[in-house]
Structures are given as structure tokens and as C-alpha cells.
Amino acid sequence: MSEFLHRQISILRKAIEDYRAGLLHLNALIKRVEEISDAIGIQEWKDALFPIVLEMEQVNAANLNTNTNLSDANKKIISKALQDIEALVGKSIRP
Known about the structure:
Number of domains: 1
Number of helices: 4
Structural class: mainly alpha
Helix content: over 70%
Shape: globular
């Protein structure tokens, strides 16, 4: 794996960790994920990440519109999305 890709994946993992620790809001997490995807610039990565981020954005939009905390159902959706991103990262760093 290139040094650049390694750094971007480290930033992505840190963002997920910060979100789970309550240090990063969902909106900021989504923005970071999108920025990292753009920085990586690999079309296959973007294509795989797109539906995951779209789902997160839908939850975020609904949450912002109601100005409430995430429901348990939405927390599960976001948790699954983060697991999917981590699985994508795992596939990306294999030799």
C-alpha cells in the first residue's frame, strides 16, 4: 500500500473512532469520509463507498431536520455503515 493511501486510511479510521467516542458529529464524519474518498481518487473506492455514505447522509438529513438525537434505529444504520466502511478499508489494505 502506498504511503499516501496508508495516511488516508489512518485519517478515516481516526474519524470513525472519534465519532464512536462522541468527539465528532455525524455531519462532520460524513464530510471527512467524503473528503478522504475524493483525496484517494480511486473510482472503485468511490463506487463502493457511495451507497454507504448516501445512507449515512439520509440519516443525517432526517436528524438535522428534526433537530433531535439519533433514534435507536438510525444508530443501528450508522453502526452498520461504519462496519461497511471498515470492511472496505480491510479489502483496500490487503497486499
